[in-house]
Amino acid sequence: MSNSETSFAISSLFQLTALRFRLFLREPEAIFWTFVFPIILAVGLGLAFRNRPADVLQIGVTSPQLYRAIAADQGLKPVTTDQANGAKALDNGSILLLAIQEPNGAVTYRYDDTNPDARSARLLADRAIQNAAGQQAPVHVEKQLVHEKGSRYIDFVVPGLLGMNLMGPAIWGLGFAIVEARQKKLLKRMVASPMPKWQYLASFILSRLVMLAIEVVVFLGFAAVAFGVPFRGSLWQLGLLCILASLSFSALGLLTASRAKTMEAANGWMNLVMLPMWILSGVFFSSSRFPAVIQPFVQALPLTAAINLLRGNMLQGLSLGQMWAPAAILLAWLVVPFAVALRIFRWR
Amino acid sequence: MREKSLEVNRKSGPQSTAEPALLLRNLRKAYADVVAVDGIDLEVAKGECFGLLGPNGAGKTTTIEICEGLTEPGSGTVELLGRNWRSHAAELRQRIGLQLQETQFPEKATVEETIRLFRSFFVRGITVDESIRTSQLEEKRKSRVGGLSGGQKQRLAMACALVGDPELLFLDEPTTGLDPQARRHLWDLVDELKKAGRTIILTTHYMDEAERLCDRVAIMDHGKIIALGTPAQLIASVGGEHVVEFALHGGAALETEPLLTLEGIGSHRVDAGLHQLSVSELHLAVPAIFAAIAAQGLTLSEFRTHSASLEDVFVGLTGRNLRDE
Question: How far apart are CA B131 and CA A96, in angstroms?
């Protein structure tokens, strides 16, 4: 008896989850918003904020001697010109610095000292010219060049987009599906059958986890291949974080949908819940930029916690143990809304 | 009137000593502003097809949803198959089947997927194939629910109700909103279930449906059962199997006393100038009515007869038409 009851329980949970999954796959828009949209967003941001190779600085020179000196530095590109044309080139920005050979052997630099690139150009050009004139550095230095991935904007924004993408479908997906079922009296029909209630709610979360696996792999895979976004932390902990975040947002979605009788009401609740997080939780820029007064509120938001955890894992390689505070916040957002939702859930 | 109908029930009701399929004792349910169910006593025997009949707002749906364990009763006893919802909810859910008003199944699921889902909730029951066959949805098996007609959707709801092979079946207004052909189709399905000996409790506000399908009927109005018995008994209780309707020229006043003393005439009422008489023996009563009217010096502008229906029972009991709501 217990055996057949177990397999029966598994099979109805399976049927419920499979149905959820099928219904999702039969909604073309849902697939677009879940899978394609985050990639388009990442591509757009990646293009806008891509890191260019180190700029070669254009330097105008008035003598072959200066030309040779400047050409010796690979970061500089000399352009032979005369004083009048050089001044014009300086004005339109095609050169950053004009090096003028004075008749007495001295060199005059013309540049805009409010422009950081121009100041760099002066320092580099001056060093090249002094070296060419035989200057020796008093202290010997070795260079170790580091072209670090993980400090670019795209590296910063990918965990933010991932967090946002864990939140949206969990809250919308659950919320709308549940309110629709309530509105169409399907919830009432379901509880009038012998279906265990927890299985109905669990099926939403399970199907979400299946989709989550696909979404996260597609999105992060794209970010890794196209932008070389780093994964410095442990991958299984990253997976665990995604699951935890998704469960928390699902619980929140369940809570927002637990009483609403109409789509309009549900939509209002969802916007109320998500809007502060889109703004405050640091998807596109660091949440620490907000004033100190509202920081406790900002840090307590589940999306802030999720994004901090994802950035900590991916960019800084922190372990879960090192990030216990945001992990605890996220866990609380799983337990409390789920418990409240189960208590106040309106089945009819 | 109520006394009379209860008595009818006692004489003719099922005499079985086995536990009833459904037992209601002094059932009450009040919402904030309205008493929906106002003291209902009812017994439905196993194998019976029982109809709860009444206008919209009579309390039928509240009553059936209390029976289905979806609504908490305010007070009173509810027993199904000798069990109650408080202590045997899980067992009862397995043993009953039901169809609710206005359930919309997910539009993008197919017929088969929907039935398979409901089948998975029941420990025992019929196969999905059998269910699809019984509800005559073979051709629509792979179709999405969103593309079904009203009648097909209702048959799907029936299939989901039957898939657990229930001992007791609740149908809440199964044919409301269906076209006549789809209604007859669903009636045939209920007939099959009756033949198979299943206990069925249904609500309807169609009198013809109750007459066609139900072994016994309870007529509800304002949360009370105002008549209970077989359709034939109820029809007989209003004073005849036939109804004579007539109107007089110029709407002239009619002395009703001489009519009511005639052989075979049960009752008289008048509604908007249209007189109605309940009549048991039409061939004797009609000539007598003609004579009585002529004797008063009146002339008829309209005259017709029809077989009495539960509609007439309701009118006779409440003075209102069912569709007046």
Answer: 83
Chain A positions touching B68 (Cβ under 8 A) are: 192
Count Cβ neighbours within 10 Å for each residue of B107-145 and write b for 16 or more, e otherwise.
ebbbbbbbbbbbbbbbeebbebeebbebbbbeebeeebb
Domains of chain A listed by start with CATH number: 15-50+152-344 (no CATH), 57-132 (3.40.190.10)
Closest CA in chain B for residue A195: B121
Contact B109 A15 (CB under 8 A): no
Adjacent-strand bridge partners of B271? B274
pLDDT tens figures, A202-261: 888 888 888 888 889 888 988 888 888 889 999 999 999 999 999 999 999 999 999 898
Q: What ipTM, to 2 d.p.? A: 0.79
Q: What is the pTM of this model?
A: 0.74
Q: How far apart are CA A238 and CA A232, in angstroms?
A: 10
3-state secondary structure of A71: helix
Nearest to A186 among B69, B104, B116 (CB): B104
Check A192 against B123: CB less than 8 A apart.
Answer: no
Whether A12 sits inside 8 A of B93 (CB atoms) is no
Q: Which residues contact A51 (CB under 8 A, 6 or more apart)?
A: A152
Q: Which of B209, B235, B261 is the last residue of a domain?
A: B235
CB-closest option in B94, B105, B122 to A186: B105
Q: In this structure, are residues B304 and B254 in contact, taking their beta carbons and an 8 Å threshold?
A: no
The verdict on residue B72 lying in a domain is yes
Residues in chain B with CB shorter than 8 Å from the CB of A15 are 116-117, 120
- B26 CB within 8 Å of a chain A CB: no
Nearest CA in chain A to B98: A192
Work out how many domains chain B is built from and give that number. 2
Distance CA B53, CA B211 (A): 10
**Which domain covers residue B277, as residue numbers?**
239-307
B275 Rama class: left (phi>0) / alpha (psi -120 to 50) / beta: beta
